[in-house]
Amino acid sequence: MADPSTALPPDPDRTGADGGSAPRVVIIGGGPGGYEAALTAARTGARVTLVEERGIGGAAVLTDVVPSKSLVATADVLDLVGASARLGIRDAEDAGEPVAGSLTVDLARVNERLRGLARAQSEDIAASLAAAGVVVRPGRGRLEDAEHVAVLAEGGEAVEMLPADVVLLAVGARPRELPEGRPDGERILSWTQLYDLDELPSHLIVVGSGVTGAEFASAYRALGSEVTLVSSRDQVLPGGDEDAAAVLEEAFTRRGVTLCSRSRAASARRERVADGDGGDGSAEGVVVTLEDGREIRGSHVLMALGAVPATAGLGLEEAGVRLRPSGHIDTDRVSRTSVRGVYAAGDCTGVHPLASVAAMQGRIAMHHALGEAVGPLIHQQVSSAVFTSPEIAMVGLGARELVDGADGEVHVLPLATNPRAKMQGLTDGFVKLVVRPGSGTVMGGVVVAPRASELIHPITLAVAQRMTAEELASAFTVYPSLTGSIAEAARRPAGE
Ligand SMILES: Cc1cc2nc3c(=O)[nH]c(=O)nc-3n(C[C@H](O)[C@H](O)[C@H](O)COP(=O)(O)OP(=O)(O)OC[C@H]3O[C@@H](n4cnc5c(N)ncnc54)[C@H](O)[C@@H]3O)c2cc1C
Ligand SMILES: NC(=O)c1ccc[n+]([C@@H]2O[C@H](COP(=O)([O-])OP(=O)(O)OC[C@H]3O[C@@H](n4cnc5c(N)ncnc54)[C@H](O)[C@@H]3O)[C@@H](O)[C@H]2O)c1
Predict the structure, then answer these.
(1) Is 13 exposed, middle or buried (0-12, 13-18, 19+ CB in 10 A)?
(2) Which residue, 219, 317, 424, 450, has most beta carbons within 10 Å?
(3) What is the ipTM of this complex?
(4) Is 101's pLDDT higher than 90?
(5) Going by CA atoms, what residue is nearest to atom 41 of ligand 2?
(6) CA pair distance 439, 467, nearest whole angstrom
(7) How far is the CA of 192 from the centre of ligand 1 (A)?
(8) 491 lines ligand 1 (CB under 6 A)
(9) Mean pLDDT across the stretch 154-162?
(10) Helix or strand run (H / E) with residue 289
């Protein structure tokens, strides 16, 4: 039976032909939430228009996921070199131990590559949208009411009014700023401005130790910058798995990252400092002042203070779309807002700010709106990774939720016991599984290891398919392999 709450009833005759009964879908925002929804709706036969003001692919492709993970790929190579001495590798010139510091990066070249990859990905997505018949309107979208979206030109004047049967808001978020330390794109930087640097910062201060701060601190240290990480909490990656954060902190300290915990930045400013290099006697630097008055000096500062939803000035309140106090759009698990026919997906909803989740929310929204069969977003099945060295990946219920009162058993296996890890000279990391007592169902897991982002998938499948630990342990793993530790952890009695 049709779900009476969908924006449109299912239409078996929907053909996707231009005229007739094909519903009109208008999407504001061309990031993963918006473009995945556009492709889904077009394939379902709707007439789709996507309004995007900056570039197809959104922040995910242009400034966030694609460039940052491409930067991490360069950093990974330097990390491998730094750890290769224990595998018997020596410098060809002097037979000394190879150190990452003996190599250097051409940051201008690295950044050129990252920007090129982002551009190419954006063009690929634009081509897919065009092939699917999605019409892209460059400009700023504003919701006029539940059935109309205005396209605004740069000056703010409406240049077009798009009628809609269904609207999807997928406008994303932008970097949070410190009022007394606004990014200037040169020394005080948001993460979107890092890719214009031509020279490696000699000393990068990273303010904020969430996922963004931890990833850039890890990457820039590997590239050769001195790095100071300013964390407002006791541990890095607050809110995540504490054991994983402890491994990362240890790795940071060993690699020479200076950690300032329980330190909140109040302001950041530029200053001229003596450089003693025989030039004019001074060079540019930055000073970060903490709330307790301490000052930290470096060459550059990266502000990684989180993000704010880009929902202001979109006409949402006027159209009756309910916002939460944080400014995020209030949605349910099938991406509906408080206004019938208006859906929202991605970072603007504040539901797991991940590209994968944005895309899933967008697809769910379109299936629901167009009367297709759809299941809601299942939070416990979301997997994610922190691309530091080592990587941290997680899915479902973690140990923190257990501490907070959920019922479960924890199985942990240090990576150091794994034969492949020994062969590769790996010592940091572990596999952790959380299993429901009695039934033995896998409820979640954490992997801390190189390429943990790839290793988490068997645990994600186990969670999604409600497999027991015994079932997870019974499948063959390659010998020797790091995934062997996942099966081994599933085999182990809890707490051992
Ligand atoms: C440094 C960093 C690294 C990350 N790495 C990962 C990762 O490895 N994996 C992962 O899953 N997630 C990662 N994320 C999170 C990921 O980037 C976001 O979750 C994702 O971008 C959300 O997609 P979205 O579609 O909601 O928004 P966005 O990608 O932000 O796209 C929104 C689009 O809407 C447009 N827009 C906004 N307002 C309007 C308007 N009024 N009219 C027209 N257009 C408008 C914007 O120009 C933008 O293009 C990372 C985030 C950061 C900051
Ligand atoms: N690999 C990935 O998938 C990836 C990478 C980056 C970001 N993300 C997504 O983006 C989301 C946001 O991550 P984020 O790290 O950008 O933001 P966040 O909100 O998780 O972390 C920001 C941190 O900055 C701290 N902070 C705020 N003001 C401060 C101040 N004045 N001084 C010192 N610290 C201060 C906060 O306490 C917080 O710990 C993540 O939850 C994640 O979903 C994902």
Answers:
(1) exposed
(2) 219
(3) 0.99
(4) no
(5) 353
(6) 10
(7) 11
(8) no
(9) 95
(10) strand 283-290
